[in-house]
Design brief:
By secondary structure, the protein is of the alpha/beta class. The chain has helices at about 15-30, 90-105, 195-205, 240-255, 260-265, 290-295, 365-375, 380-385, 400-415, 415-425, 430-435, 445-470, and strands spanning about 5-15, 35-40, 110-115, 120, 130, 140-150, 165, 170-175, 190, 215-220, 225, 270, 280-290, 300-305, 310, 315-320, 320-325, 330-335, 350, 350-355. Strands 1, 2, 3, 4, 5, 6, 19 and 20 form an eight-stranded mixed sheet that branches. Strand 1 (about 5-15), helix 1 and strand 2 form a beta-alpha-beta unit. Helix 4 (about 240-255) runs antiparallel to helix 5. The longest helix is centred in the C-terminal third of the chain and has 28 residues, at about 445-470. The structure holds flavin-adenine dinucleotide. Flavin-adenine dinucleotide binds near residues 14, 17, 119 and 363.
């Protein structure tokens, strides 16, 4: 039976992390707005519901989640490969954070309705239809203000995206989520994929007593990696974190070409690579600790022959050749690409709002900022000027485009008095997290802050030339 039409100000497709960050700020900044959220999953959190059990955030919890509630315990890890650095919430903690936000803030507000286990589709007649996955019941939604698309991330994880290569009968190939189900030793463990999931699978094996000699790692393309020590919150890390931000700006401002810029970034310790002899050809915002990198470098058997095409009982066929394989190998598929290129759309598109990135590698902060702009800026041109879309990175050259848009957006945010104040207090703003505990009377730290503004301006001035050379 079909239910009558629901009426709402905002219909949000998705209840993943970006949708949650958007709605949280919208509730604070638009006190009269009502919201319907719809998601295929049974609870908020999006791809975190499908992740491997040992997944953790890659960046500090201090600036992840929603703006109104802390996710971080503000303690540094004392053990493990993140020791000395601020904590990284586990997947379970991330899900619990979003569940609490939904149950303790969104729903009790009386302004949010959450339709879990439901699918959104626009009808051919333009109607907004929501279908219950369990019963097939269809509801239509009438929107007073905007349709918010929070699905652009299209996050792919191995459990939801099977491998694209063929696997011979009898070969054991598991998604990384199944690793804790291992019940017997294998002669060899072959991890397929060089992204963060692949990194996490290799680290999990090493942490669980698998000798590096038993691990083979297939890396289609090497990525530049960020050093997590350079992205730490808190006053005690301010010199390092702000120093590394300034260092990035200086590397851009001083560079004569893209390769020269990467040399400078690497020389300053701002970018890392797995193998000093291999030039990375990707950049996807991956971040590691130095301890993690040291562990990964213990794996000698790294295969760099492109993507896997087929796994046969005694060999692996790749784009550029094949390698022999032990029969008793457990293959761990980490080939799903967590980052996709969203379509080229503006954030503010008439009656539609696209939750896209407006600061590099910060999707949740971006979603919250978009909610602020939606609440306080009415002119669509002005809204889009504050929220120019930062392209998702893939190739090293994308580093330039990311920074060009990020710096231009940041400069415009500073000119908006309300946004300036919001940025100063928003916990999702990495700069706010870096400034936590910094005394305004601390002249040395304030001088560093001033220096970063000057360095940013110099970098912004240099970027057009580097972008032109990189084309
Ligand atoms: C392992 C891993 C670690 C990460 N660590 C960090 C980190 O430390 N810091 C950071 O900033 N980012 C990190 N990220 C990036 C992360 O992907 C984003 O932070 C964020 O979780 C993406 O959320 P999302 O809501 O945009 O997308 P998703 O999680 O993909 O959510 C989209 C939701 O939309 C729903 N949906 C789609 N279409 C429909 C439809 N038609 N009807 C109903 N529902 C629909 C889906 O069911 C899904 O729940 C990490 C990513 C991965 C994979």
């Amino acid at each position: 039976m079909n239910a009558p039409t629901m009426l709402t100000d905002y219909l949000v497709i998705g209840a993943g992390a970006t949708a949650m960050a958007f709605v949280d700020t919208l509730l604070s900044e638009s006190p009269d707005a009502s919201v319907v959220m719809v998601d295929r999953h049974h609870r908020p959190g999006g791809h975190w519901n499908d992740a491997y059990p040992f997944v953790r955030l890659h960046q500090p919890s201090a600036f992840y989640g929603v703006a109104s509630r802390e996710l971080s315990h503000w303690t540094r890890d004392q053990t493990g490969l993140n020791a000395g650095l601020y904590g990284l919430a586990s997947g379970a903690e991330v899900l619990s954070h979003f569940e609490q936000v939904m149950q303790q803030r969104f729903l009790p507000s009386g302004r949010v309705r959450f339709l879990a286990m439901n699918e959104y589709a626009a009808g051919a007649d333009g109607a907004h239809r929501i279908t219950a996955l369990t019963s097939g019941a269809v509801q239509t939604v009438a929107i007073r203000r905007k349709l918010v698309d929070a699905t652009h991330a299209q996050t792919a994880v191995p459990t939801t995206h099977p491998p694209k290569y063929t696997i011979a009968r009898g070969v054991a190939c598991w998604p990384s989520a199944k690793l804790p189900e291992i019940t017997r030793p294998h002669i060899r463990y072959t991890v397929i994929g060089g992204g963060k999931t692949g990194i996490d699978a290799c680290l999990w094996l090493l942490e669980n007593d698998v000798s590096p000699d038993c691990i083979r790692w297939i890396i289609p393309r090497d990525s530049w990696l960020l050093d997590r020590a350079n992205a730490q919150p808190g006053a005690e890390n301010f010199e390092t974190s702000m120093g590394s931000t300034i260092g990035q700006f200086e590397a851009i401002a001083e560079a004569t070409s893209l390769p020269d810029m990467f040399n400078r970034l690497e020389a300053r310790g701002l970018l890392l690579r797995l193998d000093p002899a291999v030039e990375p050809t990707m950049y996807r915002c991956a971040i590691v600790s130095q301890a993690e990198l040291a562990q990964l470098r213990r794996i000698d058997d790294v295969v760099r022959l492109g993507r896997v095409r087929a796994i046969e009982p005694t060999r692996i066929v790749l784009d550029r050749g094949s390698v022999p394989a032990d029969a008793d190998t457990l293959y761990i598929d980490c080939s799903a690409s967590a980052i996709v290129h969203p379509p080229r759309l503006p954030v503010f598109e008439g009656e539609r709002l696209n939750l896209l990135m407006v600061r590099w590698c910060q999707p949740l902060f971006s979603a919250a900022l978009i909610a602020y702009v939606e609440s306080h800026v009415t002119d669509p041109a002005a809204q889009n000027a504050l929220c120019a879309v930062v392209p998702s990175p893939e190739r090293p050259a994308d580093w330039l485009g990311m920074w060009a848009v990020t710096l231009a957006n940041t400069a415009r945010w500073r000119e908006h008095a309300g946004l300036r104040d919001w940025l100063r207090t928003c916990r999702l703003n990495s700069l706010t997290a870096m400034m936590r505990g910094v005394e305004p009377a601390d002249a040395a730290k304030m001088a560093l802050l001033q220096a970063s503004a000057a360095a940013a301006a110099a970098a912004a001035a240099r970027l057009p030339l580097l972008l032109a050379k990189a084309r």
